[in-house]
Please model this.
Amino acid sequence: MAMAVGESARVDVIVSMIELDNACSIAEELVDIIDEKLPLGE
Model:
């Protein structure tokens, strides 16, 4: 998943696992944690 931080910056969250459902679930949890720490864009 890619999250915009600004006009020219982003954060990529990548989880590599054999089980796709577990990888997606972990990536979504990480996005929730990281999103709270990012500056709010306009």
